[in-house]
Design goal:
mainly alpha
């Protein structure tokens, strides 16, 4: 059985996962730096300082939570 999605999450899906134009991406680049990650490399780890926004331009990520 697939997990249910809360109505709040469903209503905000477009805000969480917007389709960005090339111009939108170029504007976002002013606020950070481009980085590449190897397969299996952690992008963010709980309990450590991380950037406020992470923009994935290509590839995929798995979101996991240890012990939970």
């Amino acid at each position: 059985m697939a997990p249910s999605v809360s109505p709040t999450i469903a209503a905000r899906r477009d805000q969480m996962f917007p389709i960005l134009s090339d111009a939108d991406i170029e504007r976002m680049r002013r606020f950070g730096e481009a980085r590449s990650y190897a397969a299996g490399e952690h992008i963010v780890t709980a309990g450590t300082v991380s950037p406020g926004v992470i923009l994935i331009l290509s590839g995929k990520v798995d979101i996991t939570q240890a012990g939970g």
